[in-house]
UniProtKB/TrEMBL annotation:
Provenance organism: Pleurodeles waltl
Keywords: DNA-binding
Entry annotated with the keyword DNA-binding: yes
Source organism superkingdom: Eukaryota
Protein name according to UniProt: Uncharacterized protein
Annotated region (Disordered), positions in chain: 61-129
InterPro entries for the chain: Integrase_recombinase_N
Length: 426
């Protein structure tokens, strides 16, 4: 059989068997126009095809063989080279052609436009069911007491939202550890709980953190005859042993001098306040109210700038938290408690020193701060953002804490500057 000229179109002899068989060659047969592959000289050098595979409607190809037998039968039998050029035999050509056909059919099927059924395809994987939330776990446990949904909602409101968030994080981590061991988290034995806590201790968690994990696990895990993990003698001895094996490291609070900070709050760039940048004015106002009120940062974040929550008197300023705020300890005395800040060195000032110390009065700083924010104020929170997308909007508790820290750092940075930079008029 003469070898055809290089570069011309070629065809295969006939279709392969339907259903599960791929295209096969039969030796010494004339080829029909079922599969056409256009080849150039450069493509032969790269061993690549230039044109796509053409199929007749009657040709049926699976995406992959359904058995080992069909896989063996789909292999190309050795035969003479039907394409001209050295180094490119019929086995190489057909294996690449069949691979191209399989890839094209699988891509078409993934797009939903192919009617070719892939032989041997198993059932689709079942969707992963999400784990129930901690609130749903508690709700299911409360239904065992035959409580109404209204009563369950009241009981679920016993924990603060921040506590629920912490418990959820701790519980999810415990569930992940149980899943790796194929253990049901809701019925895990005490041994698994203690192993989990021990792994956290070995990773460097403090004793307070370990007790927090035990509290979260105890809220959702019910051991036989034990309403709480902390009631178990084994847990008490285990925690005592952890304190001996992993003694707590004392945390040394960074020392800072209040007098130094107050001294530099009297100078530039914090004074005069009508020329003070809004950022530094915010830092100074937050710092003065924080140290004079001695309140938690959560209470500072809940202060309002609107009456009747803010009222300014000749000798004092009265601050109140918003009505929706709940303090850490919810008691009638602490809910809605007023913060009264008396005037520091009220005018008239008999001496220059008292006039200078009056610059540390929070009642004096508040009007400057509120006047600068009134044009872009969005929320009624007292302390709002001063730049960017948060300008005039509510800020988080950690932001207020960071402002107090930055105020201290700026004052310490000013302490190392030359005296002439602090008092250029001298």
């Amino acid at each position: 059989m003469a070898s055809p000229s290089r570069g011309g179109a070629r065809s295969l002899s006939q279709e392969g068997s339907a259903l599960v068989r791929s295209v096969r060659l039969r030796r010494e047969h004339a080829m029909s126009a079922i599969l056409r592959v256009g080849v150039s000289k450069a493509a032969l050098a790269r061993r690549r095809f230039l044109s796509s595979v053409e199929l007749r409607p009657s040709l049926r190809l699976p995406s992959y063989p359904s058995s080992a037998q069909s896989s063996q039968e789909s292999q190309v039998r050795p035969g003479p080279s039907y394409l001209g050029g050295s180094g490119l035999g019929s086995k190489s050509v057909m294996s690449r052609a069949v691979e191209h056909v399989h890839r094209s059919s699988s891509q078409t099927a993934s797009l939903g436009g192919s009617s070719i059924a892939a032989a041997g395809d198993g059932p689709p994987p079942e969707p992963v069911q999400p784990l129930p939330s901690c609130v749903e776990i508690e709700r299911q446990q409360l239904t065992a007491f035959a409580l109404s949904p209204e009563v369950c909602n009241v009981i679920l409101a016993a924990r603060r939202p921040s506590t629920k968030t912490v418990y959820t994080c701790c519980w999810n981590k415990f569930v992940a550890g149980c899943t790796n061991k194929s253990v049901d988290s809701l019925s895990a034995p005490l041994s698994e709980v203690l192993l989990f806590v021990l792994s956290l201790a070995q990773q460097g968690s403090s004793l307070g953190t370990l007790k927090g994990y035990l509290s979260a696990i105890s809220a959702f895990l019910r051991l036989p005859d034990q309403p709480s993990l902390f009631k178990s003698p084994l847990v008490s001895m285990f925690l005592k042993g952890l304190t001996h094996l992993f003694p707590p490291t004392p945390f040394i609070m960074p020392q800072w001098d209040l007098n130094l900070v107050l001294t530099y709050l009297l100078c530039t760039p914090f004074e005069p306040m009508h020329n003070c940048p809004l950022q530094l004015l915010t830092f100074k106002t937050v710092f003065l109210i924080a140290i004079t009120s001695a309140r938690r940062v959560s209470e500072l974040q809940a202060l309002s700038s609107k009456p009747p929550y803010l009222s300014v008197h000749p000798d004092k300023v009265v601050l109140r938290t918003r009505a929706s705020f709940l303090p850490k300890v919810v008691t009638p005395f602490r809910v809605g408690q007023s913060i009264i800040l008396l005037t520091f060195y009220a005018s008239p000032h008999p001496s220059h020193e008292e006039e200078r110390l009056h610059r540390l009065d929070p009642k004096r700083a508040l009007p400057f701060y509120l006047n600068r924010n009134k044009d872009f104020l969005v929320d009624d929170q007292l302390f709002v953002g001063y730049v960017g997308a948060k300008k005039g909007k509510t800020v988080q508790k950690r932001t207020i804490s960071r402002w107090v820290l930055l105020c201290i750092k700026i004052c310490y940075a000013l302490a190392i500057l030359p005296e002439q930079l602090l008092h250029p008029q001298r």
